[in-house]
Amino acid sequence: MDVGFALVIVTAVTAYLLWFTFISRSLKGPQMWPLLGSLPGLIENCDRLHDWISDNLRACGGTYQTCIWAFPFFAKKQGLVTVTCDPRNLEHILKTRFDNYPKGPTWQAVFHELLGQGIFNSDGDTWLFQRKTAALEFTTRTLRQAMARWVSRAIKLRFCPILKEAELNSHPIDLQDVLLRLTFDNICGLAFGKDPMTCAPGFPENGFAMAFDRATEASLQRFILPEVLWKFKKWLRLGMEVSLSRSLVHIEEYLSSVIDSRKLELLNQPKDSTPHDDLLSRFMKKKDGNYSNAFLRHVALNFILAGRDTSSVALSWFFWLVTLNPLIEEKILREICTVLIETRGNNIQSWLDEPLEFEEIDRLIYLKAALTETLRLYPSVPEDSKHVVADDILPDGTFVPAGSSVTYSIYSTGRMKSTWGEDCLEFRPERWLTADGTKFIAYDPYKFVSFNAGPRICLGKDLAYLQMKSIAAAVLLRHRLTVAAGHKVEQKMSLTLFMKYGLKVNIHKRNLEGIVESMRGKYGNSQGKDSPLITVVNCNGGCNGMK
Predict the structure, then answer these.
(1) pTM for the model
(2) What pLDDT score was predicted for residue 16?
(3) Which end of the chain, N or C, is surrounded by fewer C-beta atoms within 10 Å?
(4) Which residue ranges make up the annotated binding site for heme?
(5) pLDDT of residue 42
(6) Annotated binding site
(7) Contact by Cβ (8 Å): 101, 388
(8) Helix 207-224 to helix 240-267 angle, to the nearest 10 degrees?
(9) 314 lies in which domain range?
């Protein structure tokens, strides 16, 4: 009996080792370990995850496959992950075979309690209906209205005074935190027509904003942990699962009161009154729009999640890059000044009285190029994943089985020599401009996927550029920024590319007269291709500069 049992064990171990040897040799990518798969490498590089993925992709020609856990059945299905940054594969996944690569059950389970069946957590007809309705919120007319009603007002009345106070008091400020507050206020106004005013002198606390932050963080932790583990913690009410439950109650109460009030306003609204133009009201006014409060809450929360973190994080990396590259900063300023001279005359004070208007912002091509170059190197969402419905073969020949997942690395796509050339790690806005510097070049969307691509391309792309350009112009016209002494800029390992310790900067008064004078100086008015090249240093273990 004992000999038979031992023989079974030896046979099972031998069979497993033979299988593991075969599977580890057939999968190119990070080193595989018995039972643990690629998990040890993932843990070892958790502080530099995005660059670790990029290193693996460079070594493997743009695509690799790995198993998080090395078990025969599990590795063949749910445990197998295909990672790619090949533009051909991205087009196949995001467009050509779009229906074969939905968000999938894992993603939806993680975010269901926070986002429900909202646009960013749904597939099929549910997603398509919400997208068509929401698309009406992002026309040129509504963007102009958003600019006047939310963005410009918040910049003038609250954001600029906060920076001015920091300048006068000569104390550093966490610019990432301030930007998060500003974009949160703006997206809440656009989503459900109410300004929570978190970006204000003194940084007042807002219960809804705090609950939203806690709920988002707890949901993201679920995404990192194995599904079995976070569901076990939820069942036992442990750790951040408790915080998630409490935060969701607060969010539900707050948004339900907003929704109930809006329903009454729309019901009793006189015909000649100014209509509500926010996203929530648009859904309520649909002919078949008898939607539950839960559905409407999720509509609002999905757009808040998408519209707050992405723009503020992109701006944080942009301002950091600008502090390290004064020649590009000067080019941005000279472009802004050129536009303002033409629209407002030579009185510099008149440039500062009001934020830039829609038409002025639209003319800032070099600024758009600098922001786009920032997103190429530091995309707000560095990685995204899809579920494989049916067996498929990617354009590069990689077989992906049904039930497995595909991760496309947006971070890596912007840093591959095969896609962007030998200077792929250089911060060079000119790559987005024609030779004469007068027109913006829109590259293949599968080479630049910071706004996603295909049917799910970001609806708010134009709004994001409008908001980022408005904020960037307002800051740079009034202030010169320097990173606070001793402050480390590091990537935070999450689904959004936050700076781990924020962005602490000193605020200095801008000498606009000197900038205007320099426009007649040695640099002339050229914004062409001859600007200096600055090489980006990966900020994983901390860095304070570029080389």
Answers:
(1) 0.86
(2) 55
(3) N
(4) 458
(5) 66
(6) 458
(7) yes
(8) 130
(9) 132-379+414-535
